[in-house]
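Design job #97: recover the sequence.
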């Protein structure tokens, strides 16, 4: 079942084609990520779905109905830190947000308590948001999207500006929203770990277009057979590295430059690489197929340049 359906969405800002005739859908109950370099149209797409931006063309459906008619099925969180009232506590923020949507009373109070508990915020629920860490603030902001119990949660860069630990925390929070609360999540991000660890489907945008849309596992499989690791007996010197890179092959060096990885489309190329290493006096200890990570898939598809 399609929770969100976008057909031929187009939005221009003057001469900028922010979103250029894109179509995709996000499946009910899944986590779908939109990735892409800065300015590729992620936020414009998300804001169009939430009816905050009026598109120039195309249609958007939520659970089969026009997004304008079913906007109350979505709760969204946008980039930045202005999603909360800093002089209110988490509880007051959630209560206020529910109130805007005409909800209140005992049921909402219980819901707020449940969310505070779920996100490990119970001991901070009466502390002013201003005095919470950035990670905690983001958890409160995500909790706000859940207080009205909509089916679909849309998050624009939920881990932006957070440290590693807070990102892990948010990752757990999102997983719990998906698995335990059974919500559909559409999010945009630059966080490859978040995508690889929790997202089911991935949409990659570049310059307003969709360049890839597939299940996370399919994308990883597509590249898994292509990545080889050459473990060397000694570190590659700077000069040698320069020589290797000048050959036009895209090498990645790691482990103190003792491991060299390469993505190859044709297994015959392995022999060329072996020759190349031999010519550079590099002896090979082991060759193995590498565990592909999603960052590499992304780099392959977008032609490099992860924008953080
Ligand atoms: N309100 C606006 N007025 C003019 N141009 C805009 C506006 N909003 C977005 N754009 C332009 O549209 C393009 C897409 O922007 P958008 O914010 O959707 O990208 P994004 O993928 O979310 O980027 P980022 O990763 O930086 O958040 C960019 O070229 C941007 O400059
Ligand atoms: Mg954006």
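Job complete. Output follows.
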């Amino acid at each position: 079942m399609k929770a969100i359906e976008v057909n031929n969405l187009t939005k221009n800002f003057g001469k900028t084609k922010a979103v250029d005739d894109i179509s995709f859908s996000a499946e009910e109950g899944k986590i779908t990520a939109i990735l892409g370099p800065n300015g590729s149209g992620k936020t414009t797409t998300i804001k169009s779905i939430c009816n905050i931006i009026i598109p120039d063309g195309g249609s958007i459906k939520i659970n089969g109905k026009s997004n304008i008619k079913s906007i109350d099925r979505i709760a969204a969180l946008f980039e930045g830190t202005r999603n909360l009232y800093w002089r209110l506590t988490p509880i007051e923020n959630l209560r206020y947000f529910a109130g805007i949507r005409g909800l209140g009373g005992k049921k909402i109070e219980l819901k707020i308590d449940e969310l505070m508990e779920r996100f490990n915020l119970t001991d901070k629920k009466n502390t002013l948001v201003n005095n919470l860490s950035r990670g905690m603030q983001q958890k409160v902001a995500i909790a706000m999207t859940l207080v009205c119990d909509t089916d679909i949660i849309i998050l624009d860069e939920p881990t932006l500006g957070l440290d590693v630990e807070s990102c892990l925390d948010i990752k757990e929070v999102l997983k719990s929203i998906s698995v335990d609360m059974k919500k559909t999540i559409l999010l945009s991000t630059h966080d490859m770990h978040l995508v690889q660890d929790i997202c089911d489907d991935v949409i990659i945008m570049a310059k307003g277009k969709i360049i890839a849309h597939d299940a996370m596992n399919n994308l990883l499989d597509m590249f898994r057979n292509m990545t080889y690791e050459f473990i060397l007996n000694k570190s590659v010197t700077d000069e040698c590295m320069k020589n290797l890179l000048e050959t036009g092959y895209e090498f990645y060096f790691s482990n103190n430059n003792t491991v060299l990885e390469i993505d190859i489309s044709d297994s015959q190329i392995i022999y060329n690489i072996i020759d190349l290493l031999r010519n550079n006096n590099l002896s090979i200890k082991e060759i193995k197929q590498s565990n592909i990570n999603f960052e590499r898939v992304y780099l392959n598809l977008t032609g490099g340049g992860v924008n953080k």
